[in-house]
Amino acid sequence: MPIIDQAGLRKSYLDLSSLETLCPPLLLLQAVILSGSTVWQHPDLQSQPEEVSRRLHHRAKALVDQRFEQDRLTLVVAHLLFSTYTCDSCDDTIQNMWLSLGSAVRIAQGLGMHRDLGSAATDSKHRRQWKKVWWTLVLHDTLCSFEWGRPRAIHLADSDVPELQQSDFEPTEPGALACAEHIDFFLAAISLCFIINDWLDCLRPGGRAKGSYRLRREQGSQRAQEELQSWLSGLPPTMNPNRPPSQHTLWSGTLHVAYYTAVIRFDSIAGANAQVVHDAATAISKICLSLFEQDLINSIWVFAIHQLYLAMCQHARESRDPDPSISARGLQNLQESLPVLKKLGAKNSVARQAFIFLDEVSKGEILPHPDNWHHSDFSPWNIDSLPWQFPGFDQLPQTPGTCKKGTTSHDLARAKDTEKRLQ
Question: Which stretches make up the Xylanolytic transcriptional activator regulatory domain (predicted)?
């Protein structure tokens, strides 16, 4: 995320003993440390990674709650960094990416960052910083909605901020050099988000849009597929789309994982071509496996974890295909990707839960064969007909109050309602 002047932050942090140096904001420092704890662990720390991140989050959040920091731009950046941390709890109302990004967007819009500064009396450094932070918000808000299926906080029709250019990434510190690969990655990711944004607009069920919703979705998905091909052909050499998965760097690999995820989702509505979906899911797994072998997998952004999970779910689906060749191919891809998910699970609860589930799927302990899903006795209301009962279900003792065979959840609800009426 190009939202922090790394050279300036390091310089001010290392020169804290100097009275002439302006100290970095305490909230910003705590947010940076929190974000770093989600991908790296100091060897001297004995606590679990989740516990370290949880304590750092409480400490940084306390500064926000006590209104310790008054600078609004620092608050926006801090909430952006908070979004990299996900609370390891079933209650995701405590902390998750969607909530943190929503807070960051609202603060930014209240500050007016969604509007062009125009002829305002601000220096070029300040203008570039505002633009980079705003477009980072757009990028993360779009991908968060794309992965989680939740409404976006930013609609581009409400903003007139100019698009980013190469010149906006010129370093301000003397002697510092910009990394061309980082810049190309970010600009290409923003362009990809424009396509995803238009596609998400086609999926909005409400509003005053005219015409058939299904037709609008299909046409929008087909149009997005065409734009996606144009986007791919226009990538710079540093993001070369023709390189094999084993030669991807962290930046090009992360970008192409997002691209193949878009291919899967667009095709699922436009035409559901099984071969296209298979090739895209395989490419995601191969790229992540390559980053795993390069010891770079922990540096991917959190969106890539969800995208890898999507690809592995496709492998799991193929592993249950009646065709033996497709089934063997899907199972092989699934088993090859499991070590990647296991390593990510050491620091990310989503990856850890996904690994537990898909590991059991690969062993045949979960998910029945698709041929058994449409059994004549199968009903979502009948507990005994559910095909994913755990092993030993039939051997459970029939104690008082236990459901008898043939009892349905509808029967239980009706019995409880009758009992309340009698009372």
Answer: 97-170
Closest CA to 69 of 31, 113, 125: 31
d(CA 269, CA 217): 7
Q: Tell me which residue of 22, 23, 32 sits closest to 1, measured CA to CA.
A: 32
> Under 8 Å CB-to-CB from 97, ≥6 apart: which residues?
83, 84, 86, 140, 144, 148, 302
The answer, as to whether pTM is greater than 0.85, is: no
Runs of H (alpha helix) within 123-249:
124-148, 180-202, 213-233
Please check whether residue 135 is in contact with residue 161, taking contact to mean a CB–CB distance below 8 angstroms. yes
pLDDT digits (tens, 9 = 90+) for 293-334: 999 898 888 899 999 999 999 999 999 888 889 999 999 999
Q: What angle do CA 404, 408, 411 make, to 5 degrees?
A: 95
Distant-in-sequence, close-in-space partners of 211: CB < 8 Å, separation ≥ 6: none
Distance CA 271, CA 6 (A): 45
- Residue 72, exposed/middle/buried by CB under 10 A (0-12, 13-18, 19+)? middle
Could you count the other beta carbons within 10 Å of the beta carbon of residue 157?
8
Q: How many residues does the chain have?
A: 423
